[in-house]
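Team,

Forwarding the record for the chain on the shared tracking sheet. I've put the sequence and predicted structure together so nobody has to dig through attachments.
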Amino acid sequence: MIRAATLDDVATIRAMIRELAAYERAVEQARATDEQLREALFGEHPAAFALIAEDDETGEAVGFALWFPRFSTWTGTRGMHLEDLYVRPHARGGGHGKALLASLATVCRRNGYERFEWWVLAWNEPTVDFYKSLGVDFLDEWRVCRLSGEPLRELAAQAPPVLDQTPAL
């Protein structure tokens, strides 16, 4: 079963985020707290949304998908960015990942989102193969860019004062 996440799922989502980070060899980078996730998913202005995959027999949460809307200036429409998709190892192969993706595709169709995009680590061959089986296009000509930490602070320090008037979201 796939369902929308609730406040009661926050600790489980955080645990699965850490499991995913361990699988991706970056557990030290998974620093989100329950409080941060509660605010991001269920606060006054949610930054993201989540679905939970449950085992039909046990009701155990065996996976999750966390996503947020994005916007394309080329199409003039919103799209979806899938931040995390994770199915616990003991539940893999049971159709939970595909069910999560299909549910997200339904959200896209229902909301008029023309694009559904996410990243995958190049070394994660089982997941790459799974995505290929769904007909996913891999955009090799695009590179992911990330600015964080001290370089982000240094660039922000160079901003002209007028940019400081941008509203906080």
